[in-house]
Protein: PAS domain S-box-containing protein/diguanylate cyclase (GGDEF)-like protein
Amino acid sequence: QAKEAGRDQVRFFEPEMQARVEARFALEGDLRHAVERGELQMYLQPQVDAEGQIQAAEALMRWQHPQRGLVPPSHFIPVAEETGLILELGEWAMRETCRLLARAEAAGTPIRMAVNVSPRQFHRSGFIRRVRDILAETGADPTRLTMEVTEGLVIDRIHQTVATMSELRALGVHFSIDDFGTGYSSLAYLKRLPINELKIDKTFIQDAPSDPNDAALIDTILAVAAHLRLNVVAEGVETREQADFLTRRAPMLYQGYLFGRPEPAEGLLERLAAQQVMNSASS
Ligand code: C2E
Ligand code: MG
Ligand code: MG
Ligand code: MG
Structure:
């Protein structure tokens, strides 16, 4: 009896599991060709100041699959991380972001751009040389490039992390801690890292105006940032209430749907040009 039931169970789960494994393999296979087939694109999302002026932008990867349509990064970045494909994708993202930096500068609307760098990519030997090569090849100004990394980068590798960051900082590159507050925020580590910026994770921003716990967390993050003299970017600002709540507390940049969604680079470059015209007309 028990054996029968056990077999039934196995039969019940098998097709579903197999389907999932197959779907995952198919995605992985397609991802292997995404770069060469030109299916990837970097979108840009503005980061604005309290006056609504665009001060910077985050470059975010998009995968336009011929059959699946737009595949969100939450689907393919984890697969890329597990398979090591993130090394190729990450280098492509870095090159593309640097191209956009150079393009914005050539258009007369220079701006800071941030690109996400995965821990595997950052700790890979030759990372600094690869970045130098990309900067030389694209002509991008390194002082306008920010690398966004997560707190997990530091685990067990504080020396290597500080060394790599310091070398890139010497080129003028900035560092930002992404999704700050969600990881291992050891203040002792944070103090040793040559970083420029903290990005408050959107999960804290969402309920901050109504939830005293999230409000307290944000105040703590702002105190840490002030103490370490770090710039702050608030991620995922969707409502006027959230923006006002933050504006009352400290100067920072705002990134979120309230101010602009990630969009193809052309859109942001047009907004920058329009902003420049407005500013020169009013001065
Ligand atoms: P992230 O670096 O924390 O990027 C911010 C995410 O928040 C983006 O999701 C952005 O579209 C989203 N977002 C911005 N404003 C709002 C808002 O007001 N409301 C909500 N609900 N979401 C908002 P996206 O583009 O789907 O990217 C997800 C994650 O995928 C990124 O999180 C990053 O960890 C990863 N990722 C994206 N592009 C790259 C890349 O080129 N390289 C690497 N290594 N990771 C990347
Ligand atoms: Mg980011
Ligand atoms: Mg983030
Ligand atoms: Mg996030």
The first strand starts at residue 40 and ends at 48.
